[in-house]
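Teaching note: in complex prediction, the entire set of molecules is handled at once rather than each chain in isolation. The prompt given to students was simply: 'Predict the structure of this complex.' The entities are:
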Amino acid sequence: MTTRTTQDQRPLSPHLQIYRPQWTSVLSILHRITGVLLSAGTVLVVAWLVALASGPDAYAAVTGFLAAPLVVAVLVAWTLALFYHLLNGIRHLFWDAGMMLELGPARASGIAVVIGAFVLTAVVWLVPLIGGAA
Amino acid sequence: MKALRNPLANAHNHGAAGDGVDHWWSQRFSAILLVPLVLWLVWALSVLAGADFERATAWLASPWNAAMSILFVLASFYHGRLGLQIVIGDYVHHRAIEVALQVVVAAAAIFGALIAVVSILSVAFSG
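The expected output is the structure of the full assembly:
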């Protein structure tokens, strides 16, 4: 029996996978993803603070863990996420103020945010390596 | 069954009672506060990179660094909780799991911020 209710006949809007990914949409979901990653990263900040309050042995254990190559790689990725979320957050604040909402500026500021995040991450991690102990 | 709760109480925190605006402002306010705090954090981490126990405790024991650290911890945990609240509300469609996650995240944010602040104060007062 095919009785159709009005609910069945309502048109469906296209789902997310129908759309071609664009700068604006990809950067939008990246803001949320980096936000979740940064929330997880606060565990490391707390671990470092608790270790410092617990004494030299605990501190040595945590800093030793943080110096492991794989952990350093995670920290570099975390820095990138931090700078991206910071810069894109400022972009969001401009939007909240009603500025730069047109397609052109929205795309241009998005590209600037991605480049800025990579540049700042490179500065933070590479300058100490090149310049030695400043 | 007759609803015993005031309809306004049901609407609170579900978007129709003006609470969404409050959440929106709290998120923006903590975001603006975190712009200088994150820049400070990056500077602090670059100063502390490779620091031994004595240098790290001496650094955190200075009133300015201790105060900024506490401010950063409070603002970031608050901002993080607000953000995760939205993410969970948007993507977790099973009501019971959603509520459980919201409680866990809120509790973890309070506990994380508390233990971080206590640690900072402990170093500040003993260092």
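Point out the following to students. The interface with chain B takes residues 32, 35-36, 38-39, 42-43, 45-46, 49-50, 52-53, 55-56, 59-60, 79, 82, 86, 89-90, 92-93, 96, 124, 128 of chain A (CB under 8 Å). Chain A has a mean pLDDT of 89.
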